[in-house]
Amino acid sequence: MGSIVAAIAFVAAIIYARSRLGYFRFSNVLRRVVGLCFVSFPVVGILVTIVGIVWPGAFDAEVTSSSQLVGLVMFFAPFVAVGIWVLRSPTYRPDLGDTMRLVSTDPWSEELARRQNRSWWTGDPKTIPNESVATPPRTIQR
């Protein structure tokens, strides 16, 4: 019963976050979180296995050999590769003029130049301080 309530609360939290952030900002944040999970969970699993090999009595389950580590690394390597690919992909905000790569006729370099100076998490444009509003430099009067 508790897991059902937790699942409903999780879904409600996602719906609430999506309504507060907006669809495209939320999808960019969700993509970054999924990418971080794809990278961090396998790395933690590999580190725990290394600790089990170095200190055999550290955990209840015994690690028999280093071949287990090799198998674990081979199993987790695609997950880490997908996570890195997701984390390195540029943000996508069609509300800010972004186009899908397969549909666009613009060169990819122009599309990436348009996406510069954006937040890594949401794709929001970074604010650049307005230089005309800044205080003028002081002059020394003699």
Would you mind describing this structure in some detail?
This protein is mainly alpha-helical. The chain has a domain at 32-89. Helix content is 58%, strand content 0%. It is built from four helices and no strands. Helix 1 (2-21) crosses helix 2 (23-54) and helix 2 (23-54) packs antiparallel against helix 3 (66-88). The chain is extended, with a radius of gyration of 24 Å. It starts with a helix and ends in a 28-residue tail after the last helix. The mean pLDDT is 80.
SSE order and pairing:
Elements: H1 2-21, H2 23-54, H3 66-88, H4 108-114
Helix pairs in contact: 1-2, 2-3
Keywords:
142 residues, 0% strand, mainly alpha
The biggest beta sheet is recorded as:
none
Order of helix and strand elements from N to C terminus:
HHHH
Low-pLDDT stretches:
none
- End-to-end separation in angstroms reads 81 Å
Number of DSSP helical runs = 4
Shape: extended
Output mean pLDDT. Answer: 80
* CA-atom Rg in angstroms: 24 Å
Strand proportion, as a percent range, falls in: under 5%
Structural class: mainly alpha
Q: How many distinct beta strands?
A: 0
What proportion of the residues is helical, as a percent range?
55-70%
